[in-house]
Every structure is written in C-alpha cells, then in structure tokens.
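ugh ok fine here u go
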Amino acid sequence: MNQDFINDALEDFQEENSQYSYELRDDFSSVVYRYDESIESVVQAKMLMGVTSMYALNGIIESGNSDWSVEVTIENCHTGNVVAKGVLPGDSITFGQEEWEASYE
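structure:
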C-alpha cells in the first residue's frame, strides 16, 4: 500500500509539469525533488510529507530498523540549484519566496 501511494503521488507530481523530477535512493537514505515555485500546494505537500514519510516507512519495514533518517533535497528544476535541504527527522525543512529567488541566481 505504501508503494502504491508513492507511485500515485509521483505520477501526479510528474503530470503537474514535465520538467519536474525526483530521485529516491534504493537504500532509503535520501530523496531529491526537482520542481519550481509554481507547483500546486497540494502536490507539494503530497510529495514532501506523504512520499517522504512512506519512503522512510518502507525503509523501516525493509531493514527492520526503526532508527531512520532521510536526507531531503529540494532543487529548482530550471537551474539545479538547491532551494532547501535537511535530514529528517531531526531537521526542519523550511523555504519560501526568498529561497526560490536565490535558487535562480
């Protein structure tokens, strides 16, 4: 069920804009989402909270280890520049208009 949710969310994400992309490491250690500031807020929330959570949960299920961490990186899909980055669950990943503008420089 977790993987079905991830697959559906990723499909919605890529349907939003053909330039949007993602990378999910096979070892459940990191995710990279590439999109821009015009992403629909519902799609963004589904990616950042839903996909990332289910991805981490799949890692726990597969490894049997509940001591998890996932590095999350958000990149501007037009420039490749990092908008925000952090390691969950310890970090708080926050970004807004200022970070998006800086990612175009």
